[in-house]
Design brief:
three-stranded antiparallel beta sheet
């Protein structure tokens, strides 16, 4: 496939790997880029020197374009952005904030900017600020989320901006990919599916939790704090729910999640760790190489389209 996103980023397939904190390491980013998509290193809450190491490590593993996802709510965001400008990866994706003040410096460094947005208003603001494309992420996604579903958000964003739109949230296979393109997207972003890749260095317990997930297991906590997060339900999410129902102080609720994702990713703690994953987790059934996962989103899409046409013509 060749879409505006492929031309913009110099990639073979119009697919971006989600910037999942801790999960999206240099190993995963390089594997996705080598497979023809765009891999992203997730800066998350890591300090700048760690991000620099990850960028340089990724360069030893691929000669393809890759990017860095910068979480703007990180206390290290300023320093991380400076490192990114110095290291010059092909792309910067941003989340949890407005990257407007960084865009001029990023563009001067020749870096493409793809902000993750959850509303039409933010998409329009990002286009006006000079973003090269936007990632319209629906509430089905894992991690920090907005309120609008992918099905409703993507076509509205497509109608509102002229730059390429990447659909994200709940896209688990080629049927989801076809649906995203039908909504007007120029590409897709996939996160949860890549957790269960052979190159992802997440703990096996984390991967197995995704493989075992059912349709209602990806729940949202933190709505009362204004920073909702979707993760697989376990003892941690139940404790979150209890505190929120009891209207516990903001600080107590926030403190509960400190280190949770790291416990899940590194230690395999599936009970008190934060198993961030989207609603598509229930559609992930095996661990495969990234290259095979990427091809599975696009090989056979013609058959999906033919099936749609057959149903419409009956």
């Amino acid at each position: 496939m060749n879409t505006r996103l492929c031309e913009l980023l110099g990639i073979e397939y119009p697919i971006i790997q989600g910037g999942m904190a801790w999960v999206a390491t240099a190993e995963l980013a390089a594997a996705v880029s080598n497979g023809g998509g765009l891999g992203l290193i997730a800066a998350g809450g890591a300090p700048a020197d760690v991000v620099r190491e990850q960028i340089r490590k990724c360069r030893t593993m691929t000669d393809k374009p890759f990017g860095v996802n910068v979480m703007l709510m990180s206390p290290f965001a300023e320093e991380v952005m400076q490192v990114v400008i110095e290291e010059k990866p092909a792309v910067v994706a941003t989340g949890a904030g407005n990257p407007g003040k960084y865009i001029p410096a990023l563009k001067e460094a020749g870096i493409k900017i793809l902000p993750v947005i959850a509303s039409v208003a933010m998409a329009m603001k990002m286009e006006k600020s000079g973003a090269d494309a936007v990632i319209a992420e629906g509430t089905e996604a894992g991690g920090h989320i907005g309120e609008i579903t992918t099905m409703c958000l993507v076509p509205q964003v497509v109608d509102a901006v002229s730059i390429p739109v990447v659909a994200a949230g709940g896209i688990a296979d080629k049927r989801g990919a076809v649906a995203a393109f039908a909504l007007g997207a120029d590409g897709i972003q996939v996160g949860t599916r890549f957790i269960c890749s052979t190159e992802c260095i997440a703990h096996e317990n984390y991967k197995n939790a995704v493989l075992k997930a059912k349709d209602r297991d990806a729940v949202v906590t933190g709505r009362s704090t204004g920073a909702p997060v979707r993760a697989l339900k376990n003892k941690l999410t139940k404790e979150y729910e209890r505190l929120e129902k009891e209207r516990a102080p903001f600080e107590e609720i926030e403190a509960l999640g400190v280190g949770g994702l790291r416990r899940a990713f590194e230690e395999g703690d599936v009970q008190t760790g934060s198993l961030m994953a989207g609603q598509s987790a229930a559609m992930v059934h095996e661990i495969e190489p990234c290259a095979d996962i990427i091809r599975s989103y696009f090989d056979g899409t013609e058959d999906v389209i033919k099936e749609i046409e057959s149903k419409l013509n009956k």
